[in-house]
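Researcher: Final request for today, and then I'll write up notes for the group meeting. The sequence and the SMILES for fe (ii) ion follow.
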Amino acid sequence: MKKIYQEIFKLARPYLAVRENQFHTEICYDYAVKLLNYYGGREDIVLPSIILHDVGWSALPDDKIYLAFGPKNPDKKLNRVHEIEGAKIAATILRQLSFKNEDCLEICRIIENHDSGKNPANLEERLVKDADKLWRFNPDGFNTDYRRFDIAPLQYWDYLSVNREEWLFTDYAKSLAAEGLEKIRTKLLEISI
Ligand SMILES: [Fe+2]
Ligand SMILES: [Fe+2]
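Model: Predicted protein-fe (ii) ion complex:
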């Protein structure tokens, strides 16, 4: 990992100390690198955006965080807080690292829309959104999520399988999600035998 991204991770760490976000972000970062390798695009926009996309969860009290995401009717207004506050925290971090103003604005725009935005404006935004959602299809992400949402694993697997097309924008992300689901299913069936 380039030094600049290590520095962003270091400054983000205190803000990622809730909701398993450090672990979530590290996994999303790896997906962002894979998507960049496949599609190209501006690494200097995508990687800072993915490292900082969830710093805004730190602005919500602990008892509100788990009402704001997941498959059981999340509170969209609370969810929006993590995007808006995240963009503000990201701007502070990026300025400390002397990011150009126009890049800072673009990264913050992506962060502010990473979960709620339905129409990504460019490739970089599509890659960030897909890298974030691919966590759900990662075996470790899956194990974290079905437990914290208190859902039976096979039921959660079905929910992911039904929604994958709608959540993901790029074909490569869809194929990574399909691979992930296959791995998860094989493990779940092994356990249930
Ligand atoms: Fe998020
Ligand atoms: Fe996220």
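Model: The first helix runs from residue 3 to 12. The radius of gyration is 16 Å.
Researcher: Thanks, that's everything.
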